[in-house]
Structure formats: C-alpha cells, structure tokens
C-alpha cells in the first residue's frame, strides 16, 4: 500500500501499514486511512486477559467513568464502579453476592470481628487448638475467612489485659507506682503469711490493682454508656462513679491435665480476680445505678488480678 501522506509516498507491506501510519503524528485524519482488521483471532473474554490487557481494552470507558466521577461524585471512581457492579449483579438476581459486596464496601466485611471470635471461643470453652481446627475447617469448606486466625484473637485479647490502657488518677493515688508493666513475680510477695501457711513456691503474673480496674471499666464502656442513656444521665460523664467490686480467688485444677504433652507437673493453678458487681452515679442526694452484673458468680465476668502456679 502506498502511504497517502504528502511528501511520504512510501510503499508499505499490507501487514505493517497500521504501524507505519502511527508514525505520522502530525496527520489529523489518520483514522480515515487506518488499516482495519476484519479477520484474525477472535477477541478473548475480558476476564481472561492480563491486567495490562484489561486496562488497554477498557481505557476509553475508564476515561468516561473518571469524567463522570469528577463531575458528579467528587472524584470517587471506586464508588461509581462499585455501584455499577452492584446494579449489574442485582439486575441478574445475584442478590447474595451483591449483599456480600455491599457489606465489604461498608467496612463490615463477610468475616467476624476478632473480638467477636474471641468471645465465641471463650463462651463455648474451646481451647486454642480446637478453635484453630474449627477456623481451618470453616475456611476450607466455605472458601471464605469467616473466623479470624488465632494471632488476631491474641491481639484482641491484649486490650482486655491490665496495662493496655493509659490512664491518670485525679487526684493521684498515694503510694501507687505509675508503672503499669506486667511482670512475672512470686505471687505471694506482699501477702502477710500466717503461722498455718505452708511454705510454697509460686510463680505468678500479677497486675497492679488500679491498672486492672481501669482495664475492666474500659472493657465495660458500652454497658456503662447504655446504662447512663437509660437513666437520662448523659450530662454526668465526669462522674463521680461508685464502683463496687467483689474479690475472689479460685483454684483452677490440676494443670498437668491441661498440658496435653510433655512431663506431668505437680503444680496447682490459682487465680486471684475480681468482679465488678455494680456501678452507680451520684445525682443530687440520690444515687442511680447504671450497671449491675446479672451473673456475679460466672467465671466469664472475673477480671484477672493475679494468675499463679503454686
């Protein structure tokens, strides 16, 4: 084919005509002469292409969507594309997939929150290995990660342990360390021994009382706010609050049975803990109760003070 551009007149092979024509940048009506491929390979399905090829094929549509998004949606291309996808799914009656996509868009996701998974693990008395087995099975069978992995649960658990939340007593407490670090110590240190006590070696993870109380109250934040709302006490956020706690100590049985493998150990595990019984707030001369523990004897509402092997 002879090139129609003035002052060129070059003769080009039929197959290389389009390539040659693209070198003439100055030619405005280039499209009129461009070589049209009427035969050749059939077009591959859009989803089977590489990401680069998908971008290439959709570039014109992408440009139109971008223009629309900038004009109508403040430049939010993602929202426009997601909405188009949702409409396409619903038009084909694929409502389940559309609902899942909508949940992900709203930040809910199809999976459970780590804190919810932790609550499920504790309330159903599953050990870590039992939970992990369930997590793997559900993931393999459903193909989706509905339960969260163990490491996510451990991270969520840290927020429930004393020393996690920064706090400040006003006025400051006397003779109380400002350090909230948790340490491994002799669990009976500081407890006055009576004559009847057997000399026993202990190792314990002991928390500062005030740090443990702050963490327990932080964990109960939603219940406290709900209770205040129910009694129309929104203005009393600064307190003063009266918190009644019950202290308790229980043996946790023979730990050698809980080890699974390894040598049997003669120790007993002991837990010192407390339960928040009720919280009230002073209003004028009367005191209004905004929280009361429904099951004060349940071990699920025990807040740890000291976990000890004796």
TrEMBL record:
* Subcellular localization(s) per the UniProt record: Nucleus
Q: Which InterPro entries match?
A: RAG1, RAG1_DNA-bd, RAG1_pre-RNase_H, RAG1_RNase_H, RAG1_Znf, RAG_nonamer-bd_dom, Znf_C2H2_sf
User: Which residue ranges does the record assign to the RAG1-type domain?
Assistant: 1-28
Please list the residue ranges annotated as the NBD domain: 39-106
Q: Which reactions appear under catalytic activity for this entry?
A: S-ubiquitinyl-[E2 ubiquitin-conjugating enzyme]-L-cysteine + [acceptor protein]-L-lysine = [E2 ubiquitin-conjugating enzyme]-L-cysteine + N(6)-ubiquitinyl-[acceptor protein]-L-lysine
Alphabetized GO MF terms? double-stranded DNA endonuclease activity; histone binding; protein homodimerization activity; sequence-specific DNA binding; ubiquitin protein ligase activity; zinc ion binding
Enzyme Commission number: 2.3.2.27, 3.1.-.-
Hydrolase: present as a keyword of the record? yes
Q: State any GO CC term.
A: endodeoxyribonuclease complex
Function, as annotated, reads:
Catalytic component of the RAG complex, a multiprotein complex that mediates the DNA cleavage phase during V(D)J recombination. V(D)J recombination assembles a diverse repertoire of immunoglobulin and T-cell receptor genes in developing B and T-lymphocytes through rearrangement of different V (variable), in some cases D (diversity), and J (joining) gene segments. In the RAG complex, RAG1 mediates the DNA-binding to the conserved recombination signal sequences (RSS) and catalyzes the DNA cleavage activities by introducing a double-strand break between the RSS and the adjacent coding segment.
Subunit structure, as described in the record: Homodimer.
Domain free text: The NBD (nonamer binding) DNA-binding domain mediates the specific binding to the nonamer RSS motif by forming a tightly interwoven homodimer that binds and synapses 2 nonamer elements, with each NBD making contact with both DNA molecules. Each RSS is composed of well-conserved heptamer (consensus 5'-CACAGTG-3') and nonamer (consensus 5'-ACAAAAACC-3') sequences separated by a spacer of either 12 bp or 23 bp.
Similarity comment? Belongs to the RAG1 family.
What protein is this chain from?
A: V(D)J recombination-activating protein 1
**Organism of derivation:** Hirundo rustica (Barn swallow)
């Amino acid at each position: 084919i002879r090139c129609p551009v003035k002052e060129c007149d070059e003769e080009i092979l039929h197959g290389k005509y389009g390539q040659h024509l693209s070198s003439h940048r100055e030619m405005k009506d280039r499209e009129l002469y461009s070589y049209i491929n009427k035969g050749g390979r059939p077009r591959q399905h859009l989803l089977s292409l590489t990401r680069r090829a998908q971008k290439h094929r959709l570039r014109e549509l992408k440009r139109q969507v971008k223009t629309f998004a900038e004009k109508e949606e403040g430049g939010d291309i993602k929202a426009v594309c997601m909405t188009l996808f949702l409409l396409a799914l619903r038009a084909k009656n694929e409502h389940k997939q559309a609902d899942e996509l909508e949940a992900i868009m709203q930040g809910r996701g199809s999976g459970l929150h780590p804190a919810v998974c932790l609550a499920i693990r504790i309330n159903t008395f599953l050990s870590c290995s039992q939970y992990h087995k369930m997590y793997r099975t559900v993931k393999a069978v459903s193909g989706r990660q509905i339960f969260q992995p163990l490491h996510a649960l451990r991270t969520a658990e840290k927020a429930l342990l004393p020393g996690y939340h920064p706090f400040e007593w006003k006025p400051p407490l006397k003779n109380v360390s400002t350090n909230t670090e948790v340490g491994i110590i002799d669990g009976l240190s500081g407890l006055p021994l009576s004559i009847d006590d057997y000399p026993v070696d202990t190792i314990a993870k002991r928390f500062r009382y005030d740090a443990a109380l702050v963490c327990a109250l932080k964990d109960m934040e939603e219940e406290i706010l709900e209770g205040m709302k129910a009694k129309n006490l929104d203005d009393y956020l600064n307190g003063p609050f009266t918190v009644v706690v019950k202290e308790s100590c229980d043996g946790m049985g023979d730990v050698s049975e809980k080890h699974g493998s390894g040598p049997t150990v003669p120790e007993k595990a002991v837990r010192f803990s407390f339960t928040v019984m009720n919280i009230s707030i002073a209003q004028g001369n009367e005191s209004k109760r905004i929280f009361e523990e429904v099951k004060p004897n349940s071990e699920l509402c025990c807040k740890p003070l000291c976990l000890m092997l004796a």
